Recover the amino acids of this structure.
């Protein structure tokens, strides 16, 4: 059985998720082959480090959404698609990370505000912060396909933040009438 390098996994994931996008080729990335002739590069792929960083932030955002849904059950229908989105991102990024490098569950608990509007607005900040990390990672990615995948995740976080913001505003407008 041949061993697949993490670089191939990262690229394969990116290509699988962004099939309709045209762009950079995945060949000729300049990585030197390992001395033993295997396809694993001598130095770690910089995109793997980016994947681990984004994975850590995705995991934290997922935990924040789940904690909020647990405390504010009335937000379940709204938060469930966002949770599913972050689960998919965590699953993709987990496949790119080497064993032992996956983020551990934080011992620090996410503090969910008791007030529903405040909880929504706190999640807006979580999504915006995640989007900033994803955007920086997309700009730094060596693989064009991986950069597009991260950009897609960035758009997802921006959409989540916009939906949460709009819903918080709609609730205020409805409550004031």
């Amino acid at each position: 059985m041949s061993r697949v390098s993490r670089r191939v996994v990262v690229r394969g994931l990116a290509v699988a998720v962004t099939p309709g996008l045209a762009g950079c080729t995945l060949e000729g990335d300049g990585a030197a082959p390992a001395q033993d002739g295997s396809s694993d590069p001598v130095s770690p792929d910089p995109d793997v480090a980016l994947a681990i960083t984004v994975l850590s932030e995705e995991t934290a955002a997922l935990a924040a959404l789940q904690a909020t849904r647990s405390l504010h059950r009335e937000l379940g229908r709204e938060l469930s698609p966002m949770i599913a989105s972050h689960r998919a991102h965590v699953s993709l990024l987990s496949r790119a990370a080497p064993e032992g490098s996956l983020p551990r569950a934080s011992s620090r608990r996410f503090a969910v505000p008791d007030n529903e509007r405040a909880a929504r607005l706190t999640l807006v900040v979580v999504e915006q912060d995640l989007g900033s990390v994803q955007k920086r990672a997309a700009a730094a990615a060596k693989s064009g396909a991986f950069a597009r995948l991260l950009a897609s995740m960035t758009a997802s976080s921006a959409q989540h933040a916009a939906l949460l913001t709009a819903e918080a505003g709609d609730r205020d407008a409805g409550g004031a009438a």
